[in-house]
Amino acid sequence: MAVVLDAAAHRLRVPLPEPVVASPSDPPVHHVRAALDLRLRALLAHEEGTRTGADIEDLHQMRVAVRRMRASLKAARPLLDATWADALRAELGWLGGALGPVRDLDVLLLRLRAEIEDLPGGERPAGYQLVAALGDEHATARAEMLAALDSPRYRALVERLADAVRLPLPTPSATQAQPELADLVRAEAGRLRKAVRRAGPDPEDAVLHALRIRGKRVRYTGELALAGLRGTRTGRTVKKLLAATAELQEVLGDHQDACVAEQRIRQLLDGLGELPPAEAVFVGGRVVERERARARRQRSLWWAAWERVDELIGKL
Q1: Looking at the predicted structure, is the pLDDT value of residue 82 above 80?
Q2: What are the phi and psi torsion angles at 150 (to 5°)?
Q3: How far apart are CA 138 and CA 143, in angstroms?
Q4: Which residues contact 160 (CB under 8 A, 6 or more apart)?
Q5: Are residues 133 and 268 in contact, defined by beta-carbon separation less than 8 angstroms?
Q6: Which of 33, 119, 143, 242 has CB 3.0 to 4.6 Å from 123, enough for a Cys bridge?
Q7: Beta carbons within 8 Å of 91's beta carbon, 6+ residues apart
Q8: Is residue 22 classed as helix, strand or coil in its secondary structure?
Q9: Residue 36 and residue 69 in contact, taking contact as beta carbons nearer than 8 Å
Q10: Backbone CA torsion sign across 12, 15, 19, 22
Q11: Contact 265, 287 (CB under 8 A)
């Protein structure tokens, strides 16, 4: 992995310093710097694989690195110069937007192909007819993603990130009170708790998706803070909270994947015209019903998963 990282840094002509290490005694803002350094290295390590598409996991990990950097900048905003942090976060949002469509289609195609393989042999051709259009969409999205990775804007972003981890991060005025790492976790967890209370146990699908995103922010903020809380009671609670939030995310993620799959199958059927082949309609209906059943099952599980998270938030 180090060889791949070095190759990407060399191609972009971005020199990387030695990895940033943070200990519990370091100030909170140094932990933010270490987190950005770790994620920048992950981004570069998976860039070449993202470009080739040989293993879709590379794109997944590159996208996760972008998300974690954005989450770190958002959670640590009270520790940083807000204008600087917001500008860098916006550029990371642009990169995430370039990576996201391909990753989403990777997941959807894997899911639908598995569904079709599970159908009786005579029904599979109609199923593959449905997903053929997604292959064309995937090719277009990949071309746009590669154009973004070849752009001066991407190189400039990587240079900004490398500069950010090379030197101490820009911070607010020295007179402004600085929160502790544990405070950042408490604040993000509190926002999740308020959002769940507003939503109630049976919210709309879109609300469940939004709660999943908030859960990710709690996880990423907890990961940012964990090294600085090592050996403390709060650190042990945060570690348990990360595990519980990961379980909640898994339930909500499976629910969202099922909802998206159902929606896209319906769109694919609509794209076949006013008189689509009966076989395609039949197969599409079977797949839709399966995805709907999965979504109902995950919906029935999410509140119990949330209660485990909520209990640990109360102990922070």
Answers
A1: yes
A2: -90, 0
A3: 9
A4: 88, 91
A5: yes
A6: 119
A7: 153, 157, 160
A8: coil
A9: yes
A10: negative
A11: yes
Q: What is the pLDDT of residue 142?
A: 97
d(CA 133, CA 124): 15
Q: Is 288 exposed, middle or buried (0-12, 13-18, 19+ CB in 10 A)?
A: middle
Residue 300: CB atoms within 10 A of its CB come to 12
Mark out the alpha helices in 167-275 (DSSP H runs). Answer: 181-199, 205-226, 233-270
Contact 28, 178 (CB under 8 A): yes
Cα 65 from Cα 68, distance rounded (Å): 5
Q: What is the rounded CA–CA span in Å between residue 240 and residue 313?
A: 10
Which token pair is 60? Answer: 């997944």
Q: Which residue has the higher pLDDT, 217 or 128?
A: 217
The identity of residue 109, as a single letter, is L
Q: Is residue 142 within 8 Å of residue 302, measured between CB atoms? A: no
Q: What is the pLDDT of residue 133?
A: 82
Residue with the two structure tokens 């709309």: 204
Decide if 36 contacts 165 (C-beta within 8 A).
yes
Distances (CA, A) of 167 to 31, 74, 94, 159: 13, 20, 24, 13
Q: What is the pTM of this model?
A: 0.88
Rounded to whole angstroms, the Cα distance separating 203 from 198 reads: 9
* Token pair of 289 as six digits: 């019903």
Rounded CA separation 37/40 (Å): 5
